[in-house]
Amino acid sequence: MHFSLLEKFGAAALICAWLLFGVNFLGNMLVHVEEHVSQLPGAEASGGAATASAEPAKPEADFATLLASADPAAGEKLFGKCKACHAIDPAGGNKVGPNLHNVVGRPVGTHEGFAYSDTLKNKGGEWTYDHLNHFLESPKAYAPGTKMSFAGLSSAKDRAEVIAYLRANTESPPPLPEPTAKAEEPAPAEGKASSAEEKGAGEPASGEQAGAAATAGAAGAAGAAVTGADVDKMVAAADPAEGEKVFRKCQACHNADKGGPNKVGPHLYDVVGRPKASVADFNYSPALKGLSGEWTDEALFQYLENPKSFAPGTKMTFAGLSKPEDRAAVISYLRAHSDNPPPLQQ
User: Could you tell me how many helices (H) and strands (E) the chain has, helices first?
Assistant: First the structure.
């Protein structure tokens, strides 16, 4: 029996259709896939009533606030990623990238002896804190065509710490920008208690909560009326070894070894009892030059809490140590690195 070409083609198409149908049917029998339902934010899967809206994203912290509290020592660790291409020692010279000593406030694309890309040569302006922040976030977005291959630092906190480290290695850095004041939270509607009030309304405080509140109150009262004798008692009870650990935050800018050199900040050996701003070969800010008296335990305790409040206009970038026990421990450590510290008041 002979079949025409058209009959052969029709038979082949029919066989293929049967095969495809059979495979699809068998696959559905063996594997069950639920129908996909598109879910929009705020709507239930059924498409019915809207669900509770998601919590609003927290706003990013003001960069000036991050910069004011940034730790140069943490920035030094992060700068380890940059050392293959950049030196920061004043005598280090240029490498693949320009030397970054004194970079904060320096005109963009101007370090002597380095061949910048046309993008940075023509950028103009100075390396302000804002410009450094945007450059470190994404060099290629800030300066399209730059030869810098580093992708950038996505974390604002990391960028603030690196800039704090660069600032600590700049001899006369510009003053830090003022943090933006936070907007006050709106008061709860009249007749409606806040969530904290609702949670605690009508419930007596636990013994632990009451004890914490009493301790906080006592600490506040002590802080308001702290005297030299109070500070000396805390220092006498402090452990210099603990102070050495806390002092690591200061090592990027200060040396406490006998005979050690000045760094970004003056050397701190023999600082306890030393007249303020008296290291002969260090260039102090007018804010510290204008202070009289000696670095007593009490003065150090107040300065370490908030350098900018103690000496407005100081070049010191460190935000301070909020914990009294940390300040006492650091002073204990500095006393151990002083030849003749004043005796503690008993």
Answer: 15, 0
